[in-house]
Amino acid sequence: MKVLVMNCGSSSLKYQLINMENEELLAKGIAERIGIEGSFVKHETIGKEKAVIEERMEDHKAAIKIVLEALINKEYGTIQSMEEITAVGHRVVHGGEKFSGSVIINEEVKSVLEECSELAPLHNPPNLMGIYACEEILPNVPMVGVFDTAFHQTMPKESYMYALPYELYEKYKIRRYGFHGTSHKYVAMKAAELLGKSLEDLNIITCHLGNGASIAAVKNGQSVDTSMGFTPLEGLAMGTRCGDLDPAIIAYWMAKENLTIAEVNNLMNKKSGVLGVSGVSSDFRDLEDAADQGNERAQLALDLYYQRVKKYMGAYAAEMGGVDAVVFTAGLGENSAIARKAICSGLEFLGIKIDDEKNNIRGKEADVTTTDSTVKVLLIPTNEELMIARETKSLVG
Q1: DSSP secondary structure letter of residue 352
Q2: Active-site residue numbers?
Q3: Residues 26, 32: contact at Cβ < 8 Å?
Q4: pLDDT, tens digit, 9 for 90 and up, residues 279-321
Q5: Is 210 known as a binding-site position?
Q6: What is this enzyme's catalytic activity, as reactions (predicted)?
Q7: What's the pLDDT at 299?
Q8: What digits encode the pLDDT tens for the residues 129-168?
Q9: Are 280 and 296 contacting, i.e. CB atoms less than 8 angstroms apart?
């Protein structure tokens, strides 16, 4: 059984083809800069030379077509025909309260996902584009939706309710959902494995840090709190998202600038975060370079970002009554020793001590703490695709 996993972001598409008989990775790649000049696909069939396909991709449908053609390419592909693909597992960000687990995609599911697009405007639309494109190109292959929100359905009611009139929850299901659940679940399970302990016996803070970022409190194997909320806008400052905000600012801002709801929503989702503070970039590599060159706003954006992460870590340690391990994952968490060091600095009172030499590592599983640190700080590259493939197999297999 070969499962193709599609993880469509706002301007990128990560994919993997996995043989689920033994969870062997057959091929992987990423399409980048979709809808932007200079788009390309980096494709790798395991055991063969990597290929870079430079071709304009105006949308996700064009990207998926190139990906499928790469998989059957005689020179660098991995399968003889698309008929070898048993099922496609799609990462879907928001399913509202309708879905608490993975589902086989049908017309009803797609209709609900369309409705939820206003809750995740950066992600649900490209997620749906990926589903529609795959259905058109692979019409007889079952499609499965795996939701970012599913892992956080174990949050207690006091964690997911807002202090708003209760009727808003009853009528519109306005509540905190949480996101990046597939990633948080994977790295929490992996952390327990690396520590040689049962996940049910651990309190873990998982930090999914990248252009989109969230933190989860995983107590005894279950998510009990997480930083993102009703939409992926709440929580940490991110690449272009503002994160936590005094809601009164929105009305004040709209009145001062004569903005519409759509305009302020776009500004909070696409023009804020570290991009808005720095005026430089939403890419943390660019910010680190600019800060090194003395750009004060770039440094401020980084400091602000680190401070928000640290604040949530302290809150979740208190909420769980202690913490056994902290996990860093995703683009920034996996690759920036500077970020990990800055975030953990000052948390020695919690038993968190970073070893600078061990921390000088990128993209590999590692324990980066000192020998006398009572809390383990782990670097674990996330593998959302494998988790999605497992969910897909469980429904289709």
Answers
A1: B
A2: 148
A3: no
A4: 999 999 999 999 999 999 999 999 999 999 999 999 999 999 9
A5: yes
A6: acetate + ATP = acetyl phosphate + ADP
A7: 97
A8: 889 988 988 899 999 999 989 899 999 999 999 999 999 9
A9: no
CB atoms under 10 Å from CB of 378, counted, come to 21
Tell me which DSSP letter residue 375 carries.
B
pTM for this model (two decimals): 0.87
Element (H, E) at 169: helix 166-172
Helix (H, G, I), strand (E, B) or coil at 154: helix
Q: Is 208 annotated as a binding residue?
A: yes
Asked if residue 276 belongs to a domain, the reply is yes
- Rounded Cα gap, residues 293 and 278, in angstroms: 13
Q: Which of 82, 114, 147 is the last residue of a domain?
A: 147
Residue 60's pLDDT is 83
Does 283 belong to an annotated binding site?
A: yes
Residue 235 assigned as binding residue: no
The owner of tokens 């001062």 is 256
Parent domain of 366: 196-379
Q: Domain with 93 in it: what CATH number?
A: 3.30.420.40
Give the separation between CA 47 and CA 51, rounded to whole angstroms: 12
